[in-house]
């Protein structure tokens, strides 16, 4: 029974990330929020989500195939729709939800190209509804602390940023096993993954990207790269493969109950294989990327993303007219199965050092963090589903469709630059 105080949510896309949202609704935020429907292309995954909801004390909810999205809205009357489908379909459900009178919470990236981005902007303007993008890294205490230092003028005007992100051979490899490996679905890691990182730079600098230049390649994963290193034994997917048993990159879904329930048991419906070989054919995304961005405030970013590093985390340095800020964060890697939410992006180590000109370096105190993604997840969830909502957010961390667009535009322009070898003017691609 819905309470008048509860905001009603429907969720489309019941893969591994969806449980982050529906678990929070069913437990911590059950007094202010309620889930009223699930939607997906796959009934097995929806049934699994319903079983999880029941185990958490939430009533089972009606399920709708994706083709019945409009019917779901008409019958269950959600206030907001949570979109956690594959990236290339985000725009479809965001736009339709807005048209049917709902606000939207969407996983990153908001969408994957300028055309789809334009559709979302037009729908927001036409309907007057709201889109929020779940940039949980904004909420991590160490990232907020850097924002505070820069906003407070600790190093004067920021002139340049060097940002290096490492995905290791557990987490990084996972993008090359699943639907992300096809650039048609994700537009590559510079859009799917780096949207987090480019959003952080936009947030930290309080500025927008102006021009972008990039280079990238598939240098480690894929069959040709493996053959060049002398590999001779290959397999299309891990399940049922003898060769995969000795491959440290193989994902064995049958060893994980939730991967089995979400994907292995659901294959008969849609033929989606979650455990494809990272050294197979058909990979069209890059694993090695370097980007240079000039911002409207004249600061310059040099950025790199490596998806086969020996450790997981990032280093970022800010140079300014009054000194330098350095941050290093080492994260625990994970495979997104819906079963390891407590480990996703949790921390092994984090440091921030402030080096003012002509002064001794200072280790900056960082507030304690609790939970996944460096402590950002729990604060984000409170912002999304808590009774006070955005009132908790004095740091302006809530991200709108404008923020969603600005973050992906760096990646979209980087892809264009890689294809043409030219510097790309962001405003030539999309005007926010």
From TrEMBL:
> Which InterPro entries does this one have?
Gfo/Idh/MocA-like_OxRdtase_C, Gfo/Idh/MocA-like_OxRdtase_N, Gfo/Idh/MocA_Oxidoreductases, NAD(P)-bd_dom_sf
Q: Which domain of life is it from?
A: Eukaryota
Describe the location of the Gfo/Idh/MocA-like oxidoreductase C-terminal domain by residue ranges: 148-426
The Gfo/Idh/MocA-like oxidoreductase N-terminal domain extends over: 8-135
Quote any Pfam family the record assigns. GFO_IDH_MocA
GO MF entry, a single one: nucleotide binding
Protein name, per record: NAD(P)-binding protein
* Species, as recorded: Dothidotthia symphoricarpi CBS 119687
